[in-house]
Amino acid sequence: MSGDHLGRVGGGGGDGFPLVNDYAALLTHSDHGGFHGMDDSLPATPFFSFSDYLQGGLGVADHHYGQLVVDASANTDVFGAAASGSGAAGKLSGGTGGTTPVGTPNSSVSSSSTEAAGEEKEEVAAAAVAKEEEDGSADKSSKKVNKAAAARKKGEQKRQREPRFAFMTKSEVDHLEDGYRWRKYGQKAVKNSPYPRSYYRCTTQKCSVKKRVERSFQDPSVVITTYEGQHTHQSPATIRGSSHVLAPPPAMQSSFLHQELLMQQLHGHHVLNNNQQQQQQQVMRAMNPNMYLPSPFLLLQQQQQQQQQLHEFPDYGLLQDIVPSYNTDQP
DNA sequence: CGTTTTTGACCGGCGC
DNA sequence: GCGCCGGTCAAAAACG
Predict the structure, then answer these.
(1) Which nucleotide is closest to A19, CA to C1'?
(2) Which positions ≥6 away from A7 have C-beta within 8 Å?
(3) What would you report as the CA-atom Rg of chain A, rounded to the nearest whole angstrom?
């Protein structure tokens, strides 16, 4: 039946997240289920679009959301898992200006990260990005990439699935509101986790965006959301009501908050290389196609080369694979 | 009554 | 070639 999910460990082959060109980040969501009704925990701050963010400069540490943004340490933990040595002391910082409904002790994050550094890392690394390239270089000689890939590449490219964008959010609600409507089409047990993974698909007909949501088994407070593809339409939440970019409905605000946080997290992660930073920028640029897409998508489908660095910075590898394929950026 | 969720079965890819 | 595993399908149930 369905009771076999937390059984096996290290089944072997499965990495848990066979992502291809993915990008991940951790967000710390201060409020829990506020979305679904009361969102009092969310500050009534004006929201920024990505473009604003970008144009406004990348050093927006003083952002309004600053108070919502939280411990970069936790971020680091989850993000880099192993890289966080001092993260243990991090802890929730800003705590929502007054409200910290989430009784989630970050300590669990740090501590668990320490203990389960390996596993957590695995999970993160996977969600983070992963690589699976199939170039002829395949010198990694890892377990993956072999005859199958070789054969495939030989004749034709494997149907590259759409780029994915994964990010982690500290939230108690599994399915975070992002302004779009989703229909759940499946649920599967995650290998090393007691928590299942849910598969959603955008209900808009022409839209084929999918997303999966799962919870970190060591940090139940952390939800990993992975988007795949990009919406071919606007968010219903957007259409409904205002055509302006301002004053989005609560749900959207939270959605944007996520993204804002995401970026801050990224930037707050001052441990990146130049390349990585550049890529971050690219990613962000990609993230806002024309105006503001309430959801983080876009991305890439190129990778390669930087693999070398991947070896040296496995923890930050996620940033490596990110290469926006969209040149919607302006001159 | 229409839509979404639930859940076991099924399928393809990949490792061994 | 076999078995494991992630991802998807689809029928039935649940929900509003």
Answers:
(1) C6
(2) none
(3) 19
**Could you tell me the CA-to-CA distances from A70 to A11, A29, A31, A73 in Å, in that order?**
35, 8, 11, 8
Q: Which residues touch strand B (CB under 7 A)?
A: A 1-2, 12-13, 143-146, 148-149, 152, 158, 181-188, 198, 200, 203
Q: Which residue has the higher pLDDT, A291 or A184?
A: A184
Residue at the smallest CA–C1' distance to nucleotide B3: A183
Average pLDDT along chain A: 47
* Cβ atoms of A26 and A78 closer than 8 Å: yes
- CA pair distance A181, A203, nearest whole angstrom: 6
Task: Give the angle A313-A316-A317 at the CA atoms, nearest 5°.
Answer: 80
Residue A316 CA, nucleotide B8 C1', distance (Å): 38
DSSP A162: P
Q: Looking at the predicted structure, is the pLDDT value of residue A36 above 60?
A: no
Helices (H), A64-209: 72-80, 106-115, 117-128, 147-155
How many Å apart are CA A179 and CA A256, to the nearest integer? 10
Residue A112: what residue type?
S
Share of chain A above pLDDT 70, in %: 22
